Amino acid sequence: MTEERHIGYRPTWAEVDLDNLAHNFTQLKHFLAPQVKMMVCVKADAYGHGITQVANRLVSCSADYLGVASIDEAVKLREAGIKLPILILGMMHHKDIEALFDYKITPNICSEEVMQALDKQATAKDQPIGVHIKVDTGMGRIGVLHKEALKFIKKIHGLKTVPIEGVFTHLACADTNKDFTLHQIKLFKRLLSQLKKENIPVPLAHLANSMGLIAYKESHFDMVRPGLAIYGLYPKEGLEIDLKPALSLKTRVLYVKRVSAGHGISYGHTYVTKKKTTIVTLPIGYGDGYPRNLSNKAPVLIRGKRFKICGNICMDQIMVDVGDFSVEIGDEAVLIGEQGGNKITTEELAGLSDTIPYEIVCGLGSRIPRVYI
Ligand SMILES: *Cc1c(COP(=O)(O)O)cnc(C)c1O
Question: Ligand 1 within 6 A of 227 CB?
Fold first, then answer.
């Protein structure tokens, strides 16, 4: 158990393979014309993979930009020494913009309040701040409505304090609705040509998430903003791209016992043994963000063989029925990843858990140490 030095006494850890991340970056790059820039989304602790380690690796991949949800995430990157441009994708409060100047973080603008606050702050500091304007072409969350965008952008263009560096929008149904996706791309193109007519330059127009990047060439514009695919996860089945998952979730067998037929397992006895069998206990649970609704469903690999979780998942422990298979204390158990030629993907768990792969990786708690290989 050599990894214990890195992970503490409880042998439960997530392995993050940064070479796989770099591989995915390169694969995605192949889809792009050479001048198209790459902003990588590293919000939510880089989708659970660890924001600083991921960002450092992206610097060596020559990523052009990082996307985060909040000022706090951007500050964390700056404090870790990351010098790449960083765009806040989420909404900020107009009171919170001081840090943008201090840490050289790029804000999005989609409200009058933030526009005025930035203008005021930039004037006071005599320091212009480049901005990206967020337009709603059909997502329905933050963003100026596309019909009102031209007027809004003209207003910003009139302010010398907030030079327009980018205009962007976000796809709502890239993986589910081709017609609507093409409609959003059309609305965005229309806005860009109106801006061109008005002589308002837009250095960086961007729209594509992972699915857009992979499946819609016309969505690339000047920059793309993948998240999920960088981590080696597929936004949809059957895409023609070779991605390698960056994250594996592992633990070790800590308890083994033989029980007879009719033995109830875990809270509520939702599983009762049908015959004499071996039940092992693993030190991980919903307290680590491993979804409880995977109880009696999710696979686990031990000694290269696939078994199933039995009984309800507890806060800190799960049980696996391994039948008459010989298992020992200390054996590695893989919950996400590969072992002995067998594999369990995040996508498979997401399917069983009735959610999306994003939620599985983002949900893995801080109690699980990330080990970088
Ligand atoms: C998270 C996010 C992305 C990345 O989406 P993926 O589906 O993970 O590629 C792109 N743009 C915005 C605005 C986002 O919030």
Answer: yes
pLDDT at 202: 98
pLDDT of residue 124: 96
* CA–centroid distance, residue 156 to ligand 1 (Å): 25
Cα 196 from Cα 208, distance rounded (Å): 21
CB 252 within 8 A of CB 331: yes
For residue 229, give the ligand 1 atom closest to its CA: 9
Q: Report all structural domains of the chain as residue ranges with CATH numbers, in order of start.
A: 18-230 (3.20.20.10), 247-372 (2.40.37.10)
Q: Which of 222, 195, 199, 219 is nearest to 209 (CA)?
A: 219
With the most atoms of ligand 1 within 8 angstroms of its CB, the residue from 89, 209, 219, 220 to mutate is 209
All residues at 6 or more sequence positions from 69 whose CB lies less than 8 Å from its CB, including other chains: 43, 44, 88, 89, 90
> Among 315, 270, 273, which residue's Cα sits nearest to residue 292?
315
Active site residues: 43, 267
Ligand 1 in reach of 89 Cβ (< 6 A): yes
Please name the residues in contact with 124: beta carbons below 8 A apart, sequence gap of 6 or more. Answer: none
CB-based contacts of 351, cutoff 8 Å, min separation 6: none
Task: State which residues of the chain have pLDDT below 70.
Answer: 1-6
pTM over cut 0.90: yes
**pLDDT for the residue numbered 1:** 44
Is 41 touching ligand 1 by the criterion CB < 6 Å? yes
- Residue-level pLDDT at 5: 58
- Distance in Å, CA 258 to ligand 1 centroid: 47
**According to the model, what pLDDT value does residue 4 have?**
52
Instruction: Give residue 6's pLDDT.
Output: 66
- Closest-CA residue to 211 (of 198, 197, 227, 196): 227
Give Dmax over CA atoms of the chain in angstroms: 79
* pLDDT on residue 2: 47
Task: Find the 17 Cα to ligand 1 centroid distance in Å.
Answer: 21
Question: For ligand 1, is residue 110 a contact (CB within 6 Å)?
Answer: no
Predicted pLDDT at 7: 81
